[in-house]
Structures are given as structure tokens and as C-alpha cells.
Write a structure and sequence with these properties.
Strands 2-1-3 form a three-stranded antiparallel beta sheet, with helices on one face. A hairpin with a 4-residue loop joins strand 1 and strand 2. The chain has a single domain, classed as Fusion Protein Consisting Of Minor Coat Protein, Glycine Rich Linker, Tola, And A His Tag, Chain: A, Domain 2, CATH 3.30.1150. By secondary structure, the protein is of the alpha+beta class. The radius of gyration is 14 Å and the shape is elongated.
Amino acid sequence: MEGTEEIYSKGRSKIRRKPPPLNAVQAKAYLPKIDKLLRKDWKLPVEMDPELRVLVSVVVRRDGMLLQYELIKLSGNEFFDESVRRLFAKTELLLPLPMDFEAYAAEINLRFRP
């Protein structure tokens, strides 16, 4: 499974164009809040290698609704990868995007590690 890319989507997306990312200032303020929110609900398997990484791309609507997610880089550890997949499968709402973000939705890359 190492090096394999898997894609999971939350429902059918009607997104026709790739949403823009947050700018650096917006990301610096928004991402720590999202990290805290997700870690609260993440059921992490016990005793994981600290070098494991999963990269997830999410599309978030202005109001915080999670429109889509993709696991774009897996760790190669079945239990760790599945814990991240389960987290997003049950997540429907994140935090609203920053007030100064003008687009309808944003694409955000999130890195997960134990």
C-alpha cells in the first residue's frame, strides 16, 4: 500500500473549478484552529511510528461545510491511514473560512502525523 494514492470523496461534488487556497496570513490564523478541532475527534491508533504522514486535500465552503476530501498521500500504515479516512468520513462541518476570504470555497491541504 505504500506510495499508493487513494481518493475518498464526501458525496458528489458539484465543484466545476478548483477553489483557491487561503493566503499565508489566512492560513496561519485558520489552520491551527482546524487542527485543534480535528484532533479532538480523531481516534488515533496506539503506538504509531512518529514518522508516519498522511496528506489530505479538503474543499471547505465559506460557512465551514466540508464539501470534499481526498487522501492524496498515504503513510503505508493501514491502521493510521484508516484512522484519518474515518475522521473525514464522519466530519461534515469545520470552522467557517476567514471573513476576508472572498471565494465561495477554499482548497486546503492538511498533514496528519501521530
